[in-house]
Amino acid sequence: MQDAFAYCAELVRAADRDRYLASLFAPAQCRGALHALYAFNIEVARVREVARQPLAGEIRLQWWSEALRGERDSEAAANPVASALLAAIADHHLAATRLIELVEARRFDLYDEPMMQITEFEAYLTKTSSALFALAAKILADWDPETVVVPAGIAYGMTAILQAFPLHAARGQLYVPAELLERHHVQASEVFAGRSSAGLNAALAQLRHLARERLAEARNRLSGVPAAALPALLPIAPVRPSLDRLACCDAFAPTELPPWRRQWLIWRAAHNPARIAR
Fold this sequence. Notes:
This protein has 278 residues and is mostly helical. It has helices at residues 2-15, 17-23, 28-45, 47-51, 54-68, 73-78, 80-92, 96-105, 118-141, 146-163, 165-170, 178-183, 188-192, 198-220, 230-233, 239-246, 259-271.
């Protein structure tokens, strides 16, 4: 089992640096479970890239749903991420139903159907990004701070999707809600062709504004978060500076915060929790 947890730690270190760095501020006895949770998220989030075809992706996601329901015990035992995750679920009394909901929400990623409404987009982010923050807080403090993790996860997820906008556009996928594009008279074909416009810039600016609003909601509720749960929220420390940078970039050529700055923002927030959502 230690090999499985070590595998998860390496996967998270390589593929989700922010969460890996945040986990280093958690108690040592909790890090294995955090790495298992985050490694699972990496596995299901990249199904489209790995599977390439929707049917193959559906099969992979179905496997995860069945493993979480206890229907793939022998296969799960041979999979380092699944075996570590199932151990974390048992050790920390995590709700497998919430993880299954996360898997089910990820089915949207496999297809090119647009996200239609802002409410639909936020529901997707709540089941994916927010759920991850909630489960991490449960591991750390046996506490599920919905009033904080829901807006925090929405802000985090929106920022990540804005950062990945050119990648999604290049493969004909739209997470930016269609109602926003319609409001600003933007055709999906323009997005897929990689054409910037005043309307597209306005739509993305509105989405950044919404992300800032959700971040402010999380910030206003941080005082109620137990100190033990705070490392779960450290990955949101780079969100506000990332939004600031995105506001200065072309939609199809976003620049990311350099790794050293992201690391510094997480380190600063770990030593001053009031800075987590600043």
